[in-house]
Amino acid sequence: MTGKERREQLLDIGRRLFAERGPQPAVDVRTRKLLGGGSHLVAPGLTMISRYAGCRNPARVPSYLDNMSRLGLIRFSDDPLADQSAYEVLEAQEEVKQALASAGRGMTIRRRIELTVFGRNLCVMTGLGGGATTRSDSASPGGRPPGTPR
């Protein structure tokens, strides 16, 4: 895959998912805590992003998401989505079922991936949309980061 194709793939992910559909569900699969012991991370950040965006190389999606986060376009939140049905669909996927089986009595931790204010503004300025709001936008008036003067 050429550099141009990778850029197009990132734009597709941004447009098809975050700009049009808003925050995306993600789950971490962990082992269960046993009598005060700690749990272990089995499979981090499982999503359906590659399916929804029509990615040709689904194995590269974690790398794409890391790069989008590094650039300040998206953020990985520990808060779950309000719509829990999105997680039911995600948790029914074979990849999640396999991770849960390998964890023994595993559990999922529900999280979300969302556009940052910068990411949303970039989508708007490049014509990709970006009308979907994020929790961090609603936490601060006018979509400004907390503590930013008017």
Write the topology of this structure.
Blueprint: H1 3-21, E1 24-30, E2 41-46, H2 49-53, H3 61-70, E3 74-77, H4 85-91, H5 94-102, E4 107-115, H6 117-125, H7 135-138
Antiparallel strand pairs: 1-2, 1-4, 3-4
Can you describe this structure?
It contains seven helices and four strands; from the N terminus they run H-E-E-H-H-E-H-H-E-H-H. The chain is α+β, with helices and mostly antiparallel strands and 150 residues long. It has a single domain (3-143), classed as 2-Layer Sandwich (Translation Initiation Factor IF3), CATH 3.30.110. It is elongated, with a radius of gyration of 17 Å.
Distance between the termini: 44 Å
CATH topology: Translation Initiation Factor IF3
Order of helices and strands: HEEHHEHHEHH
Shape: elongated
The main pleated sheet reads as: 4 strands, antiparallel
Low-confidence regions: 132-150
The helical percent reads 40-55%
Please tell me the total number of domains. Answer: 1
* Spatial strand sequence of the major β-sheet: 2-1-4-3
Structure class: alpha+beta
Per DSSP, the total helix count is: 7
Q: Could you say what the CATH architecture is?
A: 2-Layer Sandwich
Beta-strand portion reads: 15-25%
Oligomer designation: single chain
Rg estimate, integer Å: 17 Å
CATH class reads Alpha Beta
Counting DSSP E segments of at least 2 residues, the number of strands comes to: 4
Mean pLDDT: 79
Describe the structure using short key phrases.
150 residues; disordered C terminus; four-stranded antiparallel sheet; alpha+beta; Translation Initiation Factor IF3; single chain
